[in-house]
């Protein structure tokens, strides 16, 4: 039996009146009745009538937190659900939905436009920073946690807000930093039971150190962009360097001092000279002058020497001149070299052995504890001990001499003047064992200057090279060589070490005539003068560069210092031979005819002093009847004594009597009177 096929209703039944053939209803009326009743049909499926399930964002509520301002309700965190991939078997896979999701993602990736203008951001930051700063200043121990709010502003995209934040933190830390160094807390101390006040103080100190460390890190990051092409970043770096300099000068005893010094040393390692560079130099000079115990100065000198060595001494001259501001120049009394420091002979190197006092084990333990407590008290009181200061200054002196000697060996042109001036200033602190090496280096330097001078005479110097004052360098070498012997036993040193001082005397004699022709003889680094239109632009120093130049003495002053060391040595005044005195006296009178007015007066004054002390030895230059020997005077001889000065007369005096300056005329008359008095 075949199954019965089910019949499906295609359209609902239309309630129509029974067929009345008698009335005769037409088919058109049936169609109109069909469409009239179609509006009430329910043709939608059931799932279309169900309400849709919208995706709701889940929220996680958080408990309130307690701050210094009270209980604060935390904002609920919204948990975003990851959208399902269209290609996943769990997704619908409709292309339309995938396109809509991609459009939504692109809209989300677009950065939000800030609704607050930069001006409003600055005003709001000022109000917030002022409020936090006032709270911390009123009660630092209670509101020390507010420092974290300041660190948030330091990461702002607005450069002005960052600069305001750095300056505000500087003012706050200067006010709340204590007068002692905060040491880290050990694990054993953390386990100890403390009173409420001690615990509060410890929390304040640790919070202060943590916030200050973050502030120093922010200064370090910002200062690295000094001299950047981006002006906004460079302005922030300038503010950071100013803050670091202020902290180093006001609170040099506090923690992370080495990080602040590293900021300054990093800027000084770049030869680009700008206001930030001069600011760092002035900060280090102030630190060296005001440092009493020498700890900060020793750390700064150590970092500077390491930086110079890593840069192969390719630094600016002002960096090396900071060593001339160290307090050891006036306080330290022991002589030193690059390896060791001498002590006074009266100081016993080894203590005499004393009779040992019997103590029990308990007493020895108690004494050790007492010594430890006393040491902590001394560190807390920041008392300066002479032993510690001498030790620091001794180490600094070794580092300075090592730097000077290495520069002399490498012959760095732009640092020769600074090194020679520094050696002359530190001459009274140099060990005798170090003399031979230094004088040999100075001798080689003078020989090199002579070779360079001959090369310049043969051909013009290249315009791209840095200008060098060769005459000035040679005079500095001579001054340094004789300054090393001042305050020492010269006869003993020269005899034992075989020091060749005749070389420097001969070189000084040969440089007198060329020096008198120098047009800049009376000009120094601080002298105001116009630029040479035909010369190199680097020859004229800028005002800021001249301000920080230590060696500001004129060439005339350097020449007088050299001549005084040769003709009027303070240790053995009577040991100068007559031939040397006569040769120099004749040469000085000759160059006085070409010297400017002030330099000529200075030479006349020096000759008057020589005539007062050594008048009998040079009187033969004025009185021919007292001469011994014959020959011809040759002022261009390489040997001073070989020039035969007693074979000539000082005819220059007759010309100087008619000099345009009345002081010069009076000086030559006074000189001749001194010679007459010396004969009587």
Automatic annotation (TrEMBL):
GO terms for cellular component: nucleolus
Per the UniProt entry, the signal peptide is none
Composition-biased stretches (Acidic residues): 94-111
Q: Which residues form the Nucleolar complex-associated protein 3 N-terminal domain?
A: 124-215
* Regions of compositional bias (Basic residues) in chain numbering: 352-363
Which GO BP terms, alphabetically?
A: DNA replication initiation; ribosome biogenesis
Biased composition, class Basic and acidic residues, residue ranges? 47-63
| Domain CCAAT-binding factor span(s) in chain numbering | 474-666
Residue span of region Disordered: 1-117, 337-363
Family in the record = Belongs to the CBF/MAK21 family.
According to its UniProt entry, the function of this protein is described as:
Required for synthesis of 60S ribosomal subunits and the transport of pre-ribosomes from the nucleoplasm to the cytoplasm.
Q: What is this protein called?
A: Nucleolar complex-associated protein 3
Originating organism: Aureobasidium pullulans (Black yeast)
């Amino acid at each position: 039996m075949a199954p019965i096929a089910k019949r499906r209703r295609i359209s609902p039944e239309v309630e129509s009146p029974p067929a009345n053939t008698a009335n005769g209803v037409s088919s058109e009326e049936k169609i109109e009745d069909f469409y009239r009743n179609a509006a009430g049909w329910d043709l939608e499926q059931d799932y279309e009538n169900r309400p849709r399930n919208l995706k709701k964002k889940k929220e996680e509520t958080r408990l309130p937190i307690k701050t210094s301002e009270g209980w604060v309700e935390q904002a609920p965190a919204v948990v975003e659900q990851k959208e399902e991939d269209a290609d996943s078997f769990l997704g619908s896979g409709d292309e339309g939905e995938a396109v809509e999701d991609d459009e939504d993602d692109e809209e989300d990736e677009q950065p939000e436009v800030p609704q607050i203008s930069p001006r409003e951001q600055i005003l709001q930051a000022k109000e917030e920073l002022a409020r936090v700063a006032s709270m911390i200043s009123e009660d630092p121990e209670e509101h020390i946690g507010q420092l974290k709010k300041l660190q948030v502003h330091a990461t702002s995209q607005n450069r002005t807000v960052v600069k305001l934040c750095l300056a505000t933190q500087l003012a706050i830390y200067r006010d709340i930093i204590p007068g002692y160094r905060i040491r880290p807390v050990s694990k054993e101390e953390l386990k100890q039971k403390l009173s409420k006040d001690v615990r509060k103080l410890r929390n304040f100190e640790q919070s202060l150190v943590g916030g200050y460390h973050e502030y120093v890190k922010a200064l370090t990051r910002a200062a690295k962009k000094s001299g950047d092409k981006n002006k906004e970043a460079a302005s922030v770096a300038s503010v950071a360097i100013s803050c670091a300099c202020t902290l180093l000068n006001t609170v040099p005893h506090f923690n992370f001092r080495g990080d602040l010094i590293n900021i300054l040393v990093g800027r000084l390692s770049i030869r680009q000279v700008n206001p930030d560079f001069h600011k760092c130099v002035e900060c280090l000079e102030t630190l060296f002058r005001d440092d009493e115990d020498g700890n900060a100065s020793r750390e700064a000198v150590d970092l500077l020497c390491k930086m110079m060595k890593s840069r192969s001494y390719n630094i600016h001259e002002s960096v090396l001149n900071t060593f001339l501001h160290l307090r050891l120049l006036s306080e330290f009394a022991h002589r030193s070299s690059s390896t060791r420091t001498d002590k006074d002979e009266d100081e016993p190197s080894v203590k005499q052995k004393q009779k040992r006092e019997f103590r029990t084990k308990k007493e020895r333990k108690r004494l050790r504890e007492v010594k430890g407590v006393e040491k902590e008290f001394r560190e807390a009181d920041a008392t300066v001990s002479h032993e510690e200061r001498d030790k620091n200054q001794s180490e600094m002196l070794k580092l300075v001499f090592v730097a000077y000697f290495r520069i002399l060996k490498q012959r760095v042109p732009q640092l020769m003047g600074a090194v020679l001036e520094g050696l002359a200033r530190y001459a009274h602190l140099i060990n005798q064992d170090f003399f031979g090496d230094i004088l040999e280096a100075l001798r080689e330097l003078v020989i090199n200057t002579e070779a360079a001078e001959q090369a310049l005479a043969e051909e013009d110097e290249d315009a791209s090279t840095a200008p060098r004052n060769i005459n000035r360098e040679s005079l500095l070498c001579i001054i340094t060589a004789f300054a090393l012997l001042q305050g020492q036993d010269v006869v003993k040193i020269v005899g034992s070490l075989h020091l060749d001082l005749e070389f420097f005397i001969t070189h000084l004699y040969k440089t007198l005539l060329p020096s008198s022709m120098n047009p800049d003889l009376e000009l120094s680094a601080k002298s105001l003068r116009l630029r040479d239109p035909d010369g190199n632009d680097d020859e004229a120093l800028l005002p800021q560069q001249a301000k920080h130049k230590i060696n500001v003495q004129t060439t005339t002053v350097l020449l007088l210092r050299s001549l005084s060391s040769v003709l009027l040595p303070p240790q053995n005044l009577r040991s100068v031979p007559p031939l040397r005195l006569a040769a120099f006296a004749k040469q000085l009178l000759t160059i006085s005819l070409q010297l400017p007015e002030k330099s000529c007066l200075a030479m006349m004054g020096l000759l008057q002093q020589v005539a007062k002390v050594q008048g009998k030895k040079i009187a033969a230059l004025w009185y021919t009847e007292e001469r011994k020997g014959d020959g011809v005077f040759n002022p261009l001889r390489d040997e001073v004594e070989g020039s035969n000065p007693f074979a000539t007369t000082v005819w220059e005096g007759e010309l100087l009597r008619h000099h345009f300056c009345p002081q010069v005329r009076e000086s030559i008359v006074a000189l001749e009177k001194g010679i007459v008095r010396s004969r009587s």
